[in-house]
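We treat protein structure as text, and this decision shapes the records that our systems exchange. Because each token names a local backbone shape, the row as a whole describes the fold. For reference, a complete record is included directly beneath this paragraph.
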Amino acid sequence: MNRKEQLGKALLALLIVPVMATNAAAQARPNLSVARLVYNAAKSQANPQGDLKGQLAVIDKAIAEAMRMGRTGEVRRLLAQGQTLLAGREWTDDLDFSNSLVLRAEAVVLDSKQPGSIRIEHIYAPRLQIVGPLTARVSLHRPRRAALGFQPGDKIKDLATQEGLSGDLLDEPGRIELDWTGIEDGAYVVQAEVFDRDKTLGAASLAVELRGGLADRLRSIEAGLKKIRGFKARLADVLYPVERIRDVNRGKMEIGGFQVAEELSAAESVLAALRSGKDPFDGRKGDMERHYLLEGAGEIMPYRVYVPTKYDGRAAFPLIIALHGLGATEDSFFDSYGKVLPKLAEAHGYLVAAPLGYRLDGFYGVTVPGMAAGGSAQRKLELSEQDVMNVLSLMKRDYAVDASRIYLMGHSMGAMGTWHLGAKYPDIWAALALFSGYGVPSTVAGMKHIPEFIVHGDADLTLPVALSRAMVAELKAQGVEHTYIEVPGGSHVNVVEPNLAAAIEFFDAHRKKAPASSIAK
């Protein structure tokens, strides 16, 4: 196996993962790119041999064929089967049926003062043959954090029992009416257990957010926007939760880290300021979330910003663009890794901006070896890259940015994006910082004037340390200034926080250099 094939295999292991055999809650189907992190670690730890290795090889081959044919339901079945085998369990017809079940709804962020409904469906035709009609019992639970989202925790109440459902929920989904009256605002999980007479066939769950008076609040925000005069650049900050709730309810995207109550309150606060003729972001310091319209997608994108207290707009400040890892959001470098980055930005005097990158698995334009290209997949890559570059432009529009001190950093998928965007836009960046990433050595020649700070743990089960070692070897060969820290026993995540301060100190020591080709001219 050559090096390119090894890289492709490592990244495919990261990217193609089975749906856990627990029916992870989702309106949009569970994000397979996020789930890959769970499976990749499990497979690395299991190191399957013998019969299990052979069984997984057969499943992998069938997955590749199903993907080639566009049979997504069959792909999900095979992925769940592989995960079950890795867990040391036998794949049975009962498990096959249970994993075929899914709940959907007209809305998952909804007004608890209005009635709702769910549909229980098959996502593929299960092998288990059911003769008689089915019964579904629906209950409401506290959410419990799981690998792929939220699962049912403690039961709060029974919601409904529906009899006479078809045994073929692929052709005839079962619709169940629900009454949310008396349930307090908050996040919940709806679970539907399916029975054939006295036999339990399986269960499906759906994460929901209940907000009393939600419909009235959304209408009020939209009506208030119509009365605003001016402040065009700030309107996206008001409209964001309205549009995001609609997109989540349509199944266009997962709810992810979207905080309904906080986002609605923030939008209403911005709206109130604008209606009084004030710009709530003018002169604002510290941590804040901003939004803008990504034209190519027709969607409002969030991005997180930090402005140090010493910033006054008169002197140009350095800027860090921070790219999150797979499954995380624009909040990652602010709320995770010990919340260290904002403190360092304050102490060292840096503006920081963290884009979403269009989707949780946008990859910032990186084309991963072995993955399908073209169509919607290619569009997502392009929009993810564009989101990053748009946020950079917005920061330069709204703040005095020192053009000689613009830095790019990222973790995991964000590190992959950092190497990709560093090579694609080499005239922008003063230095790069990469944690637990992967890059293409052939791209180094085009960005060898950019100093790099690289960190990787030698016990990383998600992206093997060999991927960073290959980039470091090429940096040495090309004579690129760099610092490489390989952490003994370091995992995919725990190497970030302890090395962020050193990354900022590395940035402190470097200003933008002209490419060698420019100097020659």
